[in-house]
Task: inverse folding
């Protein structure tokens, strides 16, 4: 499904994403990244398969590959997320299999992270931004989307974060967590995020 959608990513964007992946794999092989160096490098994904690309990223734990319909694909650490964007704090409650949970999160707005990466919306289509989804992919292959208009301050204005702390504890090792502050159920609070892809879902 993701691969089907992201196949529409332009070759240039994909090339940039592949470059980011190559950088991630290279980093994982550098001294000091010993835990990763012991793990065989993931097979190089086909250039057309962004899903495989996203799944190859856990070579760098705690890092998030931002890709898809953006001008500036980038590999972000939790520290980057905590320092490069305005930080927000929110206390939320969601239903889970273990009962209701309440947590306090801090981190940047997913919307701000995407805006900084310059979404490449079409200018020849009315309100093209309304046709996009943000696919948030986790280390365990768990995944959810939020729609772009849902998090756009001019529409849904939902303050979804890429949280870098949970209840005061750093998520630097675990990786960031998506928040979904208007959701009742916890399903979209994606933990251990490794990739975020802006995809054009429009027909
Ligand atoms: N990566 C990942 N994130 C996930 C899940 C998962 O299986 N994998 N489960 C979701 C579901 S269904 C719920 S209810 C909450 C549970 O939150 P908890 O893991 O903090 O208890 O996490 C959500 N985030
Ligand atoms: Mo759940």
Result:
């Amino acid at each position: 499904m993701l691969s089907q959608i992201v196949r529409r990513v332009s070759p240039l964007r994909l090339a940039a994403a592949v470059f980011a992946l190559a950088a991630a794999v290279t980093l994982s092989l550098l001294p000091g990244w010993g835990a990763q160096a012991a793990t065989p490098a993931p097979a190089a994904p086909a250039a057309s398969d962004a899903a495989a690309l996203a799944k190859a990223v856990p070579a760098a734990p705690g890092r998030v590959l931002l890709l898809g319909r953006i001008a500036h694909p980038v590999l972000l650490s939790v520290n980057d997320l905590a320092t490069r964007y305005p930080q927000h704090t929110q206390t939320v409650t969601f239903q889970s299999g273990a009962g209701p949970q309440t947590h306090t999160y801090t981190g940047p707005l997913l919307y701000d992270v995407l805006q900084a990466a310059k979404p490449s919306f079409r200018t020849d289509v009315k309100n093209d931004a309304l046709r996009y989804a943000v696919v948030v992919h986790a280390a365990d292959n768990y995944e959810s989307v939020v729609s772009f208009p849902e998090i756009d301050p001019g529409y849904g204005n939902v303050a979804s974060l890429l949280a870098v702390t949970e209840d005061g504890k750093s998520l630097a090792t675990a990786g960031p967590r998506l928040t979904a502050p208007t959701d009742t159920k916890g399903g979209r609070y994606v933990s251990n995020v490794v990739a975020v892809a802006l995809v054009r879902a429009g027909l």
Notes: DSSP finds seven helices and eleven strands in the chain.
